[in-house]
Amino acid sequence: MASNTFKQKMRAKPGAAKPQGKYNLFALIERKLALTGIFGEGIPVGLVPPFLYAALLALIYIWSNHKAENTIRKIEALQQEVEDIRADVTTLEAAFMYAGKQSEVAKKIAPMGIEEIDRPPFKIIVKK
């Protein structure tokens, strides 16, 4: 039986190209932000969950403020619309009340040949 030995790592030749498309997220962050001066050899993985939690809370806070502002804008627009409709209703009610007056009705039906009665109504009595 052969004895156990360590595998020898294949060393890249100086002229060989690096494999493309195999990037680690943390390696990409390190390359782009140059965090080796701050963190030393790499990003401490123990700090990632608290950082993600804080980022999630910040996103929820931003989203909630955005929704609240949109809701306030919608409420203000609806209040303005309600005020406009209330003014229209008041105007229409006044017009209907004026048009329903006896003198106005008499003016409108005069061209049709219908006249207003000047004497009070009388009772018709039928004998059985």
Question: What does this protein look like?
Answer:
Helices cover 57% and strands 0% of the residues. The radius of gyration is 44 Å and the shape is rod-shaped. It has 4 helices and no strands. The longest helix has 52 residues, at 48-99. The chain is mainly alpha-helical and 128 residues long.
Which SSEs are present, and which pair or pack?
Elements lengths: L24 H9 L2 H4 L8 H52 L2 H8 L19
> What does the oligomeric state look like here?
single chain
Indicate the proportion of strand residues: under 5%
Q: Tell me the overall shape.
A: rod-shaped
Main beta sheet strand tally, sense and closure? none
Task: Tell me roughly what share of residues is in helical segments.
Answer: 55-70%
* Mean pLDDT over all positions: 85
Task: Supply the helix-strand structural class.
Answer: mainly alpha
- Terminal Cα span: 138 Å
Question: What is the element string, with H for helices and E for strands?
Answer: HHHH
Radius of gyration: 44 Å
User: Low-confidence parts lasting 5 or more residues at pLDDT below 50?
Assistant: none
**Can you count the helices?**
4
Tally of extended strands? 0
